[in-house]
Amino acid sequence: MHFIVGLVGLALTLAYTLLLGHSSAFTGVVHVPSLVLLGLAPIFMTVASYKFSELAGTARVLVRAMRFSASRSRAQLYESLTQFASEVRQRRPARALEIASSARHDVLRQLGPLVVRQYSSADIESTASTSLYCMVSAMKRSEDVLGTLARVAPAAGLVGTVLGLISLLKDLSRFDQLGPSMALALLCTLYGLVLANAVYQPLGRIIHSHMTVSVEEAKLITRALVLIREDKPLADVRKLFELSGTGVPVVASAVPEVATGTGGES
User: Fold this and answer.
1) Which domain holds residue 187?
2) pTM of the prediction?
3) Angle at 64 between CA 61 and CA 70, to 5 degrees
4) Is 60 exceeded by the pLDDT of residue 220?
5) By the 8 A CB rule, do 104 and 113 touch?
6) What is the C-alpha to C-alpha distance for residues 128 and 119, in angstroms, rounded to an integer?
7) pLDDT in tens, 165-210
8) Number of domains making up the chain
């Protein structure tokens, strides 16, 4: 279905461009048919290549990545981990499960209950590996969608250039239409390059950066939960948070036995 919708939308976009591209007025770098072609054609090409669920997932991942702050997320993660560890070591499983379920990071929400139910460290690490793989795969698919948009935008611009040249050759005897035809030929290439390099590629890099930080946080979570399960101190995890350059939140001082305690006292 998505393939048909993409082809029909692309055909309608090309028809509109052919109908008005050689006669529409333009001022400077503004040419409406070229804008319509470059605004819609890459999107319809991408719709033909991906299912609607994948496109919706890309939109969700992109919104989350644009709202993401690495320093704020790292501080919130450390706070959740120290609170979770405190509740586990004080034998309050209900409260620990509540903290895990309300955590912002997916991996902590999935692995926290395993610690409370006293799964082995090997099981926790195995589940973390699977969860991380699924999370990275989802983000890579979103990055691929934006990569496709970045690739097809110049191609759509080239299509517009060819259409403009065809109109230009057809209307050589009509001097009043040479300008719009030339605008379609040149501006489509310009719009395609701008979209690919100034919009779609930067958005893809935003998702990639978000994915990189999420993987780092997932590894920190896994290491911390293994230490909690083995009733060992979290001092080395605290050092890892400090090495990340984001610092450790003040909440750590409220639970010193969690952040810097010893396994024998737990």
Assistant:
1) 2-265
2) 0.80
3) 120
4) yes
5) no
6) 12
7) 887 777 666 666 666 777 777 888 889 999 999 999 999 999 999 9
8) 1
